[in-house]
Structure formats: C-alpha cells, structure tokens
Q: What sequence folds into this?
C-alpha cells in the first residue's frame, strides 16, 4: 500500500496485491512504477520505507524517478569505510574525523550535488579539539557525494534531526492499514478471486475519506 505521509489523515493512495512469497523490496518496484504511470495529478518528492527496502537497486530506481528516499538503514557491518584522506566513513554513512568523532552535517550543495560536513568540536564559538586536524578557524570540513554511494550518502543525512522528523511520518501507512484490516474487516471477506479482493479493498478505500469527513464534521 502506498499512502500519504504529508497529511494527518493517513489516507491510502495506491493498493497492489502481491504474492506472500515475494519480498517487500521486489513488490515496491512493481508498485512504484505502476503508481508513477497512473498518478499524474502531481509529483512525489519523498518516499518513506522500512529497512526491508534498504538495497542499492531501490535507491537507483528512486534516483531515476527523482524521488528522495528515506529508508531505515539495515547495517550489514560494524567496520568503517576508508577514504583517500584521514577521514573514515561509519557504517551509517557519517564521516569520522581522525580522532573518531562523528562530523556534523552542514548543508547540502545542490550545484555540486554533495553534502557538507563540519568538525563537531569547531561548531561553537571556538575549536575545542585538543589535537585539531585543520588550522582553519572554521574547522575541518569534508564532502560526501551522493553518486559515490546512494545508500549511505543520502541527500538528507540520517543523523540529522530533519531526517528523523520526516521519517516519523512513515507510521501513517501502518495506521491506514490498520483501519482497512481491523476497522473495516478487510480479511473477513474470504474471497477466492483476486478481482473480488480488489473490489473489496477499493470499496474500503473510498469509505476512508468519507468517514473522515463525518468525524471532522462532528468535531466542528
């Protein structure tokens, strides 16, 4: 199910029935392509997904669709990644300074398509590092390029408060699913035909905004 995450009403947008044996990431590929072909009333800027979709091809597909992914990271290793400098990259995609401190995100450069990072001990009024690795008063800076690793170097850093605030809205799809399955008793249909399941599901989806309008009217 693809549902809205930028409103407080948890309304569904596009359902797609898949075999239970199919992995969630594979199901997303079919659903997202069909949705982009059929939904022509606007553009999708962001998509929020759980760790089951944390795969490089998913990021490449969303990059091709000009959609910014917010996907919970499925950490596969505890080892840091080396770079051509003395800066290392943590398994979560955050640059580490020579003494092992996580650098702070300092804005995204759209012209260069890169994320800027800054020494965490130089973000205040003065550099508090006892062994500074840069003579600059501004402190050490480092850039990560999204194209180097779409999975780790996201446009909005996972360590930022903005990423965490946006990702919290992913629970809207769970609330929408709960309303369909529990409140409207979707699974009690016991249909044998996929077509009948779609009819039942779309009927429920049409009831969701109608019921919302009734609730809002009563509150007013």
A:
């Amino acid at each position: 199910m693809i549902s809205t995450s930028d409103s407080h009403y948890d309304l569904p947008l596009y359902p797609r029935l898949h075999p239970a044996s199919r992995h969630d990431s594979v199901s997303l590929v079919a659903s997202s392509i069909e949705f982009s072909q059929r939904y022509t009333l606007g553009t999708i800027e962001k998509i929020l997904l759980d760790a089951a979709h944390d795969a490089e091809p998913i990021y490449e597909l969303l990059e091709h669709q000009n959609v910014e992914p917010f996907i919970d990271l499925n950490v596969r290793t505890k080892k840091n990644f080396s770079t051509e400098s003395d800066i290392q990259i943590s398994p979560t995609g955050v640059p580490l300074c020579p003494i092992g401190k996580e650098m702070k995100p300092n804005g995204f450069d759209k012209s260069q398509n890169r994320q800027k990072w800054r020494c965490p001990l130089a973000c205040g009024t003065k550099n508090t590092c006892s062994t500074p690795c840069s003579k600059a008063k501004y402190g050490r800076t480092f850039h990560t390029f999204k194209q180097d690793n779409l999975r780790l170097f996201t446009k909005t850093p996972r360590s930022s408060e903005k990423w965490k605030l946006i990702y919290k809205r992913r629970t809207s799809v769970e609330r929408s699913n709960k309303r369909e399955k529990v409140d409207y008793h979707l699974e009690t249909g016991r249909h044998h035909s996929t077509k009948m399941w779609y009819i039942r599901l779309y009927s429920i989806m049409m009831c969701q905004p109608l019921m919302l309008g009734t609730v809002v009217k009563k509150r007013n």
Notes: Residues 21 and 27 are 10 Å apart (CA to CA). The radius of gyration is 22 Å.
